[in-house]
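Aim 2 progress update. The chain analyzed this quarter is reproduced below.
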Amino acid sequence: MNNDSHDFEQFMKQREDAARAFVNGEIEPLGRMVARGSPATFFSPDGSCEQGVEQVYSKYERETTCFESGDSNFEILQMAASDSIAYWVGCQRVTARRDGSTEAMPLDLRVTEVFRREGDEWKLVHRHADALASESEENKK
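Predicted structure tokens:
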């Protein structure tokens, strides 16, 4: 494993921690990982597409306010890194209380995230997340 891959693997532990904080209504850990320079994009599970550093961060801020408490785990299917760009592809499994609900609800997402180096840090420049089809939906096809 090269140093870039090892460094990115270590970073991904922080990224997963930031996802857990996000579903508990905390934006700061993710905010430290979001790109500071253009381009930046976010294809949200709600179907919207945000472009631009400020617009993307603003969308993340709005979305985190919907969450009250929860847990999040990544199921990484592919991951790679070079000296300046990295990505992961897989599923994000969330169980969280949202929008004043009294019970935690599951949310399973297909996710692709792309990162680039800004100085010595990895920064999130693109996230695409949408609903993962349930097994029963897949079996109908």
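The mean pLDDT is 91. The two ends are 39 Å apart (CA to CA). These observations will guide the mutagenesis experiments scheduled for the next reporting period.
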